[in-house]
Amino acid sequence: MTTPNPTSRTHPTDPSDSTNPSWTGMVPVDDTALAVTDTGGPGCPVVYLNGAYASQRHWRHVIGELGAGLRHITFDERARGRSRRSADYSFEACVRDVDAVLEARGVDRAIVVGWSYGAATAVHWAERNPDRAMGVVCADGGLPYGLTGEEGQERIRTLFRKMRFLLPLVRPFGLAARMSADQHAEVNIEANQVHADLAPVLDRVTVPVRYVLATDGNLGGGDEEMEEARASLDPVIARNPNIRVSSKVPSNHSHILRKDFRAVAAVVRELATASDRKAG
Question: Per-residue pLDDT averaged across 8-14, rounded?
C-alpha cells in the first residue's frame, strides 16, 4: 500500500478550487521512496516518465507550455533526482512505480508521456492497462530497436566505464543516477533488450500512441544508427492503426525536451482534447 509521506507539502493550485490540491512529497514503494510532484487541479491527469537516468526537472518546458489546464504528475525514479536508492533498478520495478504513484495520488486514468527509457515504460504500462491509459506520447523513445548480444553489451559497459568520473558531476543536473558506473551500464543493457523486444507489445496496444521523433544523432549513437532505430517503428505502424508519428523535429535525442518541447506539448494537448470530447 502506497501512502503520501507525512512530511509532504499540500496547497491548492487555485484558491477558489480545492479539488485535487497540488502536492509535493515522497511516495513509499517496496524498499524505497519516490519524489513526486502533482500540480493538482481538475484537468486531465498526465503522468511523465523520465529517461533512464534523468529526473523530473526535464519536463519543466513541456509542462510550462501546456499550462494549468492539465493535471501534471512527475516523479523521480529510484536513485534518480530526490528519490531514494533501492535494491531493484529493473525495468519491471519502473513499471510498478507508475502504479504506485498513480495509486498514491488517487488517479485511475491518465495520459502517459515518456522520453527515451520512459517511453518504453509508458508503452508497457499502457499495454497492460488499456482501460486506464487515455493515450501515450513517446518522445524519441519506445522504439523496437536495441543493442543486444555480447558485442552490444560490452560496448555499453565500455562506454560507462569511460564515463565513470563524469557521472557524479552531471548528477546534479538530472543526467545521472546515484548508481555506480556498472549499475548504470546494467540498466542500459536491460533497456536495450526491452526496446529490442518491444514490437509485440506495440502490436497489442489498443490506445492511441503518438511519437515525436528527433532527427539528429546522440551520444553513443551516430546519425545512421539513430535513423535505423527510428525506422524500426515503420512496420509496427503499418500493423497497428493506433500508432502513428505525430511529428519529426530537428533536435537530437538528448535535447528534444528542451529544444522541441512545443512539439511534445502539442501532442499531449491533442490527446487530452480527444479524451475530453470522448468523456463529454
Answer: 44
Whole-number CA gyration radius for the chain = 18
Burial of 106 (0-12, 13-18, 19+ CB in 10 A): exposed
Cα(first)–Cα(last) distance of the chain, in Å? 33
Residue 218: pLDDT band with limits 50, 70, 90:
low
How far is 136 from 148, CA to CA, in rounded Å? 26
Beta bridge partners of 27: 34
Of residues 175, 29, 190, the one with CA closest to residue 104: 29
Nearest to 79, CA basis, from 126, 119, 29, 122: 29
Angle, helices 117-128 vs 181-196, to 10°: value is 50
Q: Which residues contact 44 (CB under 8 A, 6 or more apart)?
A: 70, 71, 110, 111, 134, 272, 275, 276
Inform me whether the pLDDT recorded for 220 exceeds 60: no
Using DSSP bridges, classify how beta strands 45-49 and 9-11 pair: parallel, antiparallel or unpaired. Answer: unpaired
What letter does residue 36 receive in the DSSP assignment? Answer: E
Q: Say what the pLDDT of residue 275 is.
A: 84
Give CA–CA dist 124/90, Å, rounded. Answer: 14
